[in-house]
């Protein structure tokens, strides 16, 4: 039996959830967007509006299309708004306990055929699925940041994920104009298993005084041809998310080579989480980003 997706729910209106809602609405889906409060949802909608307005001013989108896309995204203050969603994609913070609580509260509000997707960067899809009433209809849909720009979506099947759920997810991702890579359900999947240890090593390089923020980023941009330096990228991802992923790798793979750098922990404890808090390895509060070390 094939599952057709028409209505998409999104939980978490931050960097990723907002991006997923925007891309889904731009592809013609009706979207319901949830977060912990009406203010957070409105902040997410304002960011989406800002992104779309920028596209209008660059001539990439018409004013009419901007309005149409926005009108397809409805705020969902409670999970009851997801009663007719064919899929709900969870993109709340990278914290297993919070995600578990979300799924437990979400399931009773969904129709039986609805699929649940998680945008987790690293947490076991199988384990998250086990907290729901529908492990067969649970799947990892890992979008990249920023969602409207990045081409890849990593799809992760849990041990119980059905072929129907996988095919429906595949069709959705293709209709969003994205490319798929399939990863097995291991900590960090493919992208973050490789990317985050590199970022963590860059932070150790800074911590041990091998180089400054600027010299490390310049080294990797010009020496390894990376489009942005690893510390700039860490700020972009969010240092809290980077730390959570390293903790999942460290605990899940039980190997000391994944130990999160103490300097990363310190930045997170300071609330310097990168671009989203306007301070991380760079300070974004002025006209130009200034390295903080
Ligand atoms: N930042 C990245 O580069 C990136 C890339 C791929 C995947 N992810 C994953 O996407 C998810 C979200 O990351 P982000 O970068 O958007 O974080 P973010 O901090 O920008 O946004 C998280 C949002 O979740 C909301 N939230 C927290 N608890 C919630 C709850 N109980 N119910 C509903 N909303 C809740 C917060 O209010 C916030 O708006 C994480 O699982 C992260 O690992 C992040």
TrEMBL record:
Keywords (A to Z) from UniProt: NAD, Oxidoreductase
Superkingdom per UniProt: Bacteria
NAD recorded as keyword: yes
Matches recorded under InterPro entries: 3-OHacyl-CoA_DH, 3-OHacyl-CoA_DH_CS, 3-OHacyl-CoA_DH_NAD-bd, 3HC_DH_C, 6-PGluconate_DH-like_C_sf, 6PGD_dom2, NAD(P)-bd_dom_sf
Biological process according to GO: fatty acid metabolic process
Domain 3-hydroxyacyl-CoA dehydrogenase NAD binding: start-end pairs: 7-185
Keyword RNA-binding: no
Molecular functions (GO terms): 3-hydroxybutyryl-CoA dehydrogenase activity; NAD+ binding
Site keyed Important for catalytic activity: positions: 142
Pfam families noted in UniProt: 3HCDH, 3HCDH_N
Enzyme Commission code: 1.1.1.157
Record-stated family: Belongs to the 3-hydroxyacyl-CoA dehydrogenase family.
Protein name as catalogued: 3-hydroxybutyryl-CoA dehydrogenase
Lineage, top ranks: Bacteria, Pseudomonadati, Pseudomonadota, Alphaproteobacteria, Hyphomicrobiales
């Amino acid at each position: 039996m094939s599952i057709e997706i028409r209505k998409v729910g999104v939980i978490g209106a931050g960097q990723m959830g907002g991006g997923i809602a925007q891309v889904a609405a731009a592809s013609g889906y009706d979207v319901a967007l949830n977060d912990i409060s009406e203010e957070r949802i409105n902040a997410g909608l304002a960011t989406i509006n800002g992104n779309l307005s920028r596209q209008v001013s660059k001539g990439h989108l018409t004013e009419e299309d901007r309005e149409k896309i926005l009108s397809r995204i409805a705020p969902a203050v409670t999970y009851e708004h997801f009663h007719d969603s064919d899929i709900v994609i969870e993109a709340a913070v990278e914290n297993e306990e919070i995600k578990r609580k979300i799924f437990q509260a979400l399931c009773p509000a969904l129709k039986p055929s609805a699929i649940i997707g998680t945008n987790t960067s690293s947490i076991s899809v199988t384990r998250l699925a086990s907290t729901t009433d529908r492990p067969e209809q649970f799947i990892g849909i890992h979008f990249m940041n920023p969602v409207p720009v990045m081409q890849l979506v990593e799809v992760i099947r849990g041990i119980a994920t059905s072929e129907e759920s996988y095919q429906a997810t595949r069709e959705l991702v293709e209709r969003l104009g994205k490319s798929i890579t399939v990863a097995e359900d291991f900590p960090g999947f493919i992208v973050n298993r490789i990317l985050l240890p590199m970022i963590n090593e860059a932070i150790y390089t800074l911590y041990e005084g091998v180089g400054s923020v600027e010299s490390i980023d310049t080294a990797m941009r010009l020496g390894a041809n990376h489009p942005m330096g690893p510390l700039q990228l860490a700020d972009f991802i969010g240092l809290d998310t980077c730390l959570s992923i390293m903790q999942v790798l460290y605990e899940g793979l039980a190997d000391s080579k994944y130990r999160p750098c103490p300097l990363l922990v310190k930045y997170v404890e300071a609330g310097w989480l990168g671009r989203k808090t306007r301070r991380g390895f760079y300070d974004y509060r002025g006209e130009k980003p200034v390295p903080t070390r």
